[in-house]
């Protein structure tokens, strides 16, 4: 994998990540997709797409896996720590990372009702993958208004169909 090191990239260089998942029925096959883009000011530079699918999963787990894969790709590819904004139409990952995570950790991974936090293994993997990165997690209300989220939604759906036809 190529490590990108370029001292000429401006201070306005940033990365956007759009993630989405498909899993119409819990504990069934699911997929995720991510579009990772490097921006130099207002101009789109590098663009990378990730998509994967597995059986017996949930939509929330797929959303987490999309975020983990994206953070790992960014850590492995960029030598500079550019600001990153992750966009998701699921508030599960966005709120989990920006609002709930600190509370869960201080309560020994217990949720508000004192039950164990679901998908703790993936939350811990996501924390590890994002460590040292400057990430802002944002929730989008709809795929339809953002062209990149519309594209990542289509990629996740296509990946799930590919998986289903191969099994």
Structure explained in plain terms:
- It is a single chain.
- With 167 residues, the chain is of the alpha/beta class.
- The chain has a single domain, classed as 2-Layer Sandwich (Nucleotidyltransferase, domain 5), CATH 3.30.420.
- The chain contains four helices and five strands, in the order βββαβααβα.
- Strands 3-2-1-4-5 form a five-stranded mixed beta sheet, with helices on both faces.
- A hairpin with a 2-residue loop joins β2 and β3.
Largest sheet: 5 strands, mixed
By CATH, the architecture is named 2-Layer Sandwich
As a percent range, the share of strand residues is 25-35%
The CATH superfamily is: Ribonuclease H-like superfamily/Ribonuclease H
Characteristic terms for this protein:
4 helices; 167 residues; disordered N terminus; five-stranded mixed beta sheet; Nucleotidyltransferase, domain 5; alpha/beta; 5 strands
Sequence-ordered SSE layout with sheet pairings:
Blueprint lengths: L12 E10 L5 E13 L2 E15 L1 H19 L5 E6 L2 H16 L13 H11 L3 E6 L7 H20 L1
Parallel strand pairs: 1-4, 4-5
Antiparallel strand pairs: 1-2, 2-3
Helix pairs in contact: 1-3
């Amino acid at each position: 994998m190529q490590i990108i090191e370029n001292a000429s990239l401006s201070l306005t260089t940033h990365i956007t990540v759009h993630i989405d998942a498909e899993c119409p029925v819990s504990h069934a096959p699911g997929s995720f997709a991510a579009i990772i883009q490097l921006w130099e000011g207002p101009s789109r530079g590098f663009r990378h797409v990730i998509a994967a699918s597995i059986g017996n999963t949930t939509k929330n787990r797929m959303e987490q896996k999309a975020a983990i894969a994206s953070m790992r790709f960014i850590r492995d590819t960029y030598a500079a720590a550019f600001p990153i904004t992750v966009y998701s139409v699921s508030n599960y990952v966005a709120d989990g990372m920006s609002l709930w995570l600190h509370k869960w950790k201080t309560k020994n991974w217990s949720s508000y009702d004192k039950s164990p936090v679901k998908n703790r293994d993936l939350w811990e993997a996501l924390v590890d993958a994002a460590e040292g990165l400057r990430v802002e997690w944002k929730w989008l209300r709809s795929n339809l208004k953002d062209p990149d989220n519309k594209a990542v939604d289509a990629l996740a759906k296509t990946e799930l169909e590919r998986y289903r036809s191969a099994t």
